[in-house]
Write a structure and sequence with these properties.
Number of domains: 1
Distance between the termini: 11 Å
Helix content: 25-40%
Strand content: 15-25%
Largest sheet: 3 strands, mixed
CATH superfamily: L-arginine/glycine Amidinotransferase, Chain A
CATH topology: L-arginine/glycine Amidinotransferase, Chain A
Strand order of the largest sheet: 2-1-15
Order of helices and strands: EHEEEHHEHEEHEEEHEHEEHHEHE
Length: 300
């Protein structure tokens, strides 16, 4: 099952610019914007309401004031959920992001969401090796493929550990943004849905790796929508396909991302999915993440 209608989102207690993640997240911008936390809450609540109006089952967990976790709004980085019953916990680059693994959320996932198998990869943090969940990996769940671009936050060693435990096949490559910086999370430059794959192939500079990724997508039946490095900068790669409870396919992206698409790109995506595009400018600017990063899919 590639997509789900049930997701978990974390309502932030004190959302803010995170100095620790800004070291290699070039999407973050420190601004003089006022009332960032309040505006982020407004954007979050409106996003949840949009999803619920389209019959997505959204479970909202409230973050706690302490310990302070400025990036708690992006839960997809520290855990993933799998239809075969696994809950996977991931090693995080920023020390203050490791505190997002809060007991009340873990307890909910284990007990209420029925994940009997815990795969804990967090010991890799002590070795300076990281893999930040579905930020680092883009899953083709049906074909058991994990696409991953190497970065300080996406270690090939941890990726291989994950793949061996979960029986996934890794497709690994290097990707850079338009300024030549390593792309820190794979989910800013690609998305894999049931029928459509959105990807910035141009960011994969090594020709053989680029061909390998494109070939894997096409041979697994995906319609490729290519986006540009400029569009990546506007979060056009940060999409996620969900479905409503009655099975209608939905492509989730921010308003920023949707505005960056060409008419033809939007037309292709819309052929297969209804597009939902919330306004997330405050969260994107200060947090460096967009719509996909805010959603942790639940499978069980």
């Amino acid at each position: 099952m590639q997509t789900t209608s049930r997701i978990l989102m974390v309502r932030p207690a004190r959302f803010a610019f995170n100095e620790e993640t800004a070291k290699n997240n070039y999407f973050q911008q420190k601004t003089e914007q006022e009332k960032v936390a309040e505006k982020a809450l407004d954007e979050f609540d409106a996003f949840v309401n949009l999803l619920r109006r389209n019959d997505v089952d959204v479970i909202v967990m409230q973050d706690t004031e302490e310990p302070w976790t400025p990036d708690s709004i992006f839960p997809n980085n520290w855990f993933s959920s799998h239809i075969s019953g696994e809950l996977v916990l991931y090693p995080m680059f920023a020390e203050n992001r490791r505190q997002e693994r809060k007991p009340h959320i873990l307890d909910f996932l284990r007990r209420k969401m029925n994940h009997p198998k815990l795969i804990d990869l967090t010991s890799w943090e002590g070795k300076g090796e990281f893999l930040e969940g579905t930020g680092s990996m883009i899953f083709d769940r049906d074909k058991r493929i994990a696409y991953c671009c190497r970065s300080p936050r996406s270690s090939e060693k941890v990726l291989q550990d994950f793949c061996s435990r979960m029986n996934f096949d890794a497709v690994v490559f290097d990707a850079v943004d338009k300024n030549g910086n390593l792309i820190y999370h794979t989910n800013v430059m690609m998305e894999v849905g049931t029928q459509v794959a959105v990807i910035c192939l141009e960011s994969i500079k090594e020709e053989e790796e680029r061909k390998k990724v494109a070939s894997r997508l096409t041979t697994t039946g995906k319609v490729i929508v290519e986006i540009s490095p400029d569009q990546v900068e506007h979060f056009a790669g940060n999409m996620l396909e969900l479905k409503s409870r009655n099975g209608a396919p939905l492509m989730i992206m921010s308003a920023t991302a949707r505005k960056a698409l060409t008419t033809q790109q939007e037309k292709i995506i819309s052929t297969y999915n209804k597009i939902l595009s919330p306004e997330l400018a405050t969260i994107e600017t200060n947090g460096g993440g967009s719509a996909r990063c805010m959603i942790a899919e639940l499978f069980y």
